[in-house]
What we know:
This protein folds into two domains: 4-216 and 240-305, 3-Layer(aba) Sandwich (Rossmann fold), CATH 3.40.50; 318-453, no CATH class. Helices cover 23% and strands 25% of the residues. It is built from eleven helices and 21 strands. The strands form five sheets. Strands 12-17-19-7-6-20-11-14-13 form a nine-stranded mixed sheet. The chain is globular.
Amino acid sequence: MxxxxxxxxxxxxxxxxxxxxxxxxxxxxxxxxxxxxLADVWLSEYVSFDDAxxxxxxxxxxxxxxxxxxxxxxxxxxxxxxxxxxxxxxxLRAQRDKPGSTSTIKLSHLVMLAPANFGSALAQLGKGVLGxxxxxxxxxxxxxxxxxxxxxGSTESLSLNLDHIHGADxxxxxxxxxxxxxxxxxxSLYDHLNSYTGEDxxxxxxxIAAANLxxxxxxxxxxxxxxxxxxxxxxxxxxxxxxxxxxxxAAHSGSAHGILQSAAATTIDAILRCLQVRSAADYGxxxxxxxxxxxxxxxxxxxxxxxxxxxxVHIHDPRSLLIVRLTDEAGEPLAGAGYLLTAGTPxxxxxxxxxxxxxxxxxxxxxxxxxxFLNYALLAGDARVADPGNTRKTLRNAVPSHRPYGxxxxxxxxxxxxxxxxxxxxxxxxxxxxxxxxxTTVLDVVLPRKLHEGVFRLTQNLAPEDFxxxxxxxxxx
Length: 477
């Protein structure tokens, strides 16, 4: 590895955003025996704050900038921050799908710091009043089109991520992907007008689960479209394994705790471990090592944040992001439908554990796509959490598991010429199995479309006949 390209995140307008990371990484790389000189490091300056700029625009411009490097070995490694991760991943997809118009430069290592792979809950707010005010003070536009991509459950982000989940393992093509995510917000940067900036299970901007590329695609649908029982069966697909590491005490941004700007030794050490991977075996070994380290971090999950009237308690449980898309078999969105999670036997929404639902957000352009932020530990059942300073003191009592978990769907249109019926998941399917700690699951709920014969009839009555009030008739099989 001789050439290293840094790619920043959304709405950055100064290369100071990289902090001391490039210089510190060079020093540590030299000590580790990696050949990396100042001439081999390139800092990106891309425009995301112009409302006209789209993600495909950034991909084309990135490809053009790479060609101008005239790399001797036609390969490079890349370190990205935040939105930079999706930008480079979209470029990799374009390189695969558009070989005639995209360069053949090989990306060997993609190390993503706090990537917004599945988006950010803040993207909606960035397009709102607060975002516009910030842009006015900073003298730049908010970057509307990039924020559209970054919104949770956007069509564009789901397209990229589902392509990854159902695609080939990148290591088979010599592409090594890594995700390094901070495990908590920087409390000093908390915005009292926006609680997402202090949200546990995130780094203050991107949720850990939304950064992680170890993801699933699940489908709840009627197994036999001609059947009469509206029971939804679960099928799921696990994506390729991706090296994922939690960086303790790192936040999304800021010079003190930011995963990029602070250039902390723990982050640099993790990056160098990634860059030293040279084979699929190396990659698998690093994945295993990161998994073990993440388990250790999850075991030490109590944060006591000093406060005026005593410490504020933060219990860093693993969270899951569940992105639900409600459609019918014709691909029509189920507007107004209700989606309820259930627990126990017999299944009931009332049996779901307390505080399991942390947040829900509907996509502004696709209101039937809803992102649910769930406490994985509470759903799984968790042991008593003690005060680390006084183990006799209980911060949270033991929480029993309420499995099996299921779901029921309540459409808004239960009758008519075309309608949908109430449906629920099969009692034999425990939906907990589609979730993962610090992971995202895209769930498609697909209901059968009930079409009645009154929509289209043939008659031999040649006399004028009014059918403005059609007889509904039976459901077409």
